[in-house]
């Protein structure tokens, strides 16, 4: 009889992904698994099991919000000039003062969450072709595999931008036994893969996914569609390892052909309906629904409804659906004075009131308690979390045009988002030189996408980290003192120490 030494470590990581709505039917159970006539264990015994797992993949960004949204905002906003940590403690303060270490427990949560999601995607990719159920058509196999590859590409895109060289896991390891230990053991403890190879795998996954994924559904932006693949490809080709601005333009234009455009009212993307005539006056602030879902601007979003709500909203301020809920302690991602100054540099920017809101509170860590600003783009339990939206990709097209010397074309794109925000077109001087248009472009992305997890990665992508971040501490009196200066070693974060301890094949990133 074979002796089993270890059960799948990756299964443990899946359970560590912190999903309160985790569906155990999706993994190892009699419902999803079975044995063939020759007693070989199968992962998905029929089409129903495949569909169950596919739904789990579609819900990954709805259920496990900590690592891909909450902590991503801490990194992208509080580690940049857009926000302070908000709730100072050993896990959050290092992001705002540049003293992040591998012992940070948020990083461990994020690593395990991302790797757990990769394992879930790999499970479908690697085993769907083994399903013998004739009810599962070839077209369905191709579609579901394409969706899983798009998801895997999205996960690895976040990981490679955070940590650089990470383990590239595309297979699903089997049990370690006395007969398989030599073959299987390395799969549990994979070494890092270089950044370029990670990007190439992301590119391959997205291009493969683009062939068979469903078309964009204007009525359901929770799907892993061809448009999601196109948006991610535009973002991937803007990054240095695979930079190809012609392809950024190509996929931005294809998204426009898919029907994507800016919504007329910026606030529709983030607002909620607060009035229900059937509610008594005591509940007049009760949010009953997001103002809009599935707009022509959103490409991929996680949606929340009564009974399955967006729990992280109270981490940022007042949840409008429950005005006093947990509003007794400091909140994360406090908008910085420098960001507020940028919004107020031109009068009438409608995005300001949709991004920052002021309340009276019980603390005065960064501002007076009587007039304290809070992040406002996730304001109720029914808000959708927008992972990808067209304005981001449209502005990346402007970046591509700048690289080609087409400053007027870039300015026209920037003017589209400015006009929607209630601002005038850029002055002619803004497109007179590469330096001027780049400055206007970075400011526009900052204000358009503030509190959406983009700012840090913009600074890294355009080599602006040292210039911007080493200066902000002197001009923003609300920011705590910087611990370490920002250098090119600051562009990626440390591998979590617990992960390093468990996997002897990992090497810590330089500078940590």
As an assembly, this protein is single chain
Spatial sequence of strands, sheet with the most strands: 1-5
Structural class estimated from helices and strands: mainly alpha
What portion of residues belong to β-strands? 5-15%
Ends apart, CA distance between termini: 46 Å
The mean pLDDT is 90
CATH fold field value of the domain at 4-213: Serine Threonine Protein Phosphatase 5, Tetratricopeptide repeat
Number of E-type strands: 12
Task: Please estimate the helix content.
Answer: 40-55%
Jot down its keywords.
single chain, 512 residues, mainly alpha, Serine Threonine Protein Phosphatase 5, Tetratricopeptide repeat, two-stranded antiparallel ribbon, 12 strands, globular, membrane
């Amino acid at each position: 009889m074979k002796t089993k030494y270890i059960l799948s470590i990756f299964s443990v990581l899946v359970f560590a992904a912190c999903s309160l709505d985790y569906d155990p039917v999706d993994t190892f159970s009699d419902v999803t698994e079975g044995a063939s006539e020759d007693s070989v264990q199968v992962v998905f015994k029929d089409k129903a099991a495949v569909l169950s797992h596919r739904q789990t993949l579609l819900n990954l960004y709805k259920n496990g919000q900590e690592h891909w949204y909450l902590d991503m905002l801490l990194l992208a906003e509080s580690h940049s000039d857009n926000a302070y940590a908000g709730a100072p403690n050993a896990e959050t303060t290092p992001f705002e003062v540049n003293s992040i270490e591998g012992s940070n427990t948020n990083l461990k949560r994020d690593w395990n969450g991302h790797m757990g999601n990769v394992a879930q995607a790999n499970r479908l990719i690697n085993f769907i072709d083994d399903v013998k159920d004739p009810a599962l058509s070839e077209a369905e196999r191709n579609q579901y595999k394409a969706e899983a590859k798009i998801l895997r590409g999205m996960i690895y895109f976040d990981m490679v931008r955070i940590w650089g060289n990470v383990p590239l896991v595309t297979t699903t390891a089997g049990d370690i036994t006395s007969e398989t230990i030599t073959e299987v053991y390395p799969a549990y403890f994979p070494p890092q893969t270089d950044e370029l190879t990670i990007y190439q795998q992301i590119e391959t996954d997205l291009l493969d996914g683009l062939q068979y994924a469903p078309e964009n559904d204007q009525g359901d932006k929770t799907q892993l569609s061809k448009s999601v693949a196109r948006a991610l490809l535009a973002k991937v080709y803007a990054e240095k390892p695979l930079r190809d601005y012609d392809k950024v333009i190509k996929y931005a234009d294809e998204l426009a052909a898919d029907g994507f455009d800016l919504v007329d009212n910026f606030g529709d993307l983030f607002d909620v309906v607060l009035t229900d005539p059937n509610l008594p006056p005591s509940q007049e602030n009760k949010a009953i629904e997001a103002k809009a879902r599935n707009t022509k601007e959103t490409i991929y979003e996680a949606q929340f409804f009564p009974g399955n709500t967006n729990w992280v909203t109270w981490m940022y301020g007042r949840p409008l659906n429950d005005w006093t809920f947990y509003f007794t302690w400091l909140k994360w991602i406090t908008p910085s004075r420098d960001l507020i100054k940028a919004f107020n540099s031109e009068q009438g920017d409608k995005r300001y009131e949709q991004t920052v809101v002021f309340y009276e509170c019980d603390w005065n860590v960064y501002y007076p308690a009587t007039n304290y600003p809070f992040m406002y783009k996730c304001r109720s339990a029914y808000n959708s979390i927008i992972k990808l939206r067209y304005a981001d990709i449209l502005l990346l097209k402007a970046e591509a045009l700048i690289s080609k010397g087409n400053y007027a074309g870039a300015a026209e794109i920037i003017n589209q988002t400015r006009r929607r925000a209630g601002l005038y077109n850029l002055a002619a001087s803004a497109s007179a030189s590469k330096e001027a248009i780049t400055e206007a472009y970075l400011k526009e992305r900052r204000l358009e996408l503030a509190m959406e997890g983009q700012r840090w990665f913009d600074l890294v992508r355009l080599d602006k980290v040292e210039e911007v971040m080493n200066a902000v501490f002197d001009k923003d009196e609300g920011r705590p003192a910087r611990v370490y200066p920002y250098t090119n070693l600051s562009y990626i974060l440390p591998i979590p120490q617990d992960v390093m301890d468990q996997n002897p094949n990992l090497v810590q990133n330089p500078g940590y």
